[in-house]
Amino acid sequence: MTTCGPVTKSLLLLAVVVALTGQGSAAAEKVSECCTTVSTKQITETIVDYMVQKKNLPCVNAIIFQTESGRLYCCKHNEPWVMKKVRQLWAKKRAALASATAFL
């Protein structure tokens, strides 16, 4: 298990806020810390969330996984195990949203 770049929780939080508010733009100030390298190794810790990072040098295309312990891992976005885990997490989020809206 290795982290592959100086990624911080604040980067993850910023991405979630931008994604939820839909107010991100190309002209927005770039966050200085990002994944500049990625790993192909599978993570053995329990993964609880993810974020998609698009290439914007020096940042590279990556999926950033957050584990139960709070650690962040930069992973190669097109690895089969990464794509499978993203689909699992997305399905879990979608089910939680459907469950929450059922009570409204």
Question: Topology of this protein?
Answer:
Layout: H1 9-21, E1 47-53, E2 62-67, E3 72-75, H2 80-102
Keywords: Cytokine, Signal
Protein name: C-C motif chemokine 20-like
Pfam families: IL8 (PF00048)
Brief summary of the model shown:
The protein has 104 residues and is an alpha+beta fold.
Can you tell me about this structure?
The protein is of the alpha+beta class and 104 residues long. 35% of the residues lie in helices and 16% in strands. The chain contains two helices and three strands; from the N terminus they run H-E-E-E-H. A three-stranded antiparallel beta sheet has the order 1-2-3, sandwiched between helices. The N and C termini lie far apart (42 Å).
Uncertain stretches: 1-31
How far from one another are the termini? 42 Å
Strand order of the largest sheet: 1-2-3
How would you sum up the major sheet?
A: 3 strands, antiparallel
List the secondary-structure elements in sequence, H or E: HEEEH
Mean pLDDT: 78
Q: What count of helical segments does DSSP give?
A: 2
Cα radius of gyration in angstroms: 14 Å
**What is the general shape?**
elongated
Secondary structural class: alpha+beta
Helix proportion: 25-40%
Amount of beta strand: 15-25%
Keywords: Cytokine, Signal
GO biological process, one term: immune response
Organism: Gadus morhua
Domain Chemokine interleukin-8-like: 33-89
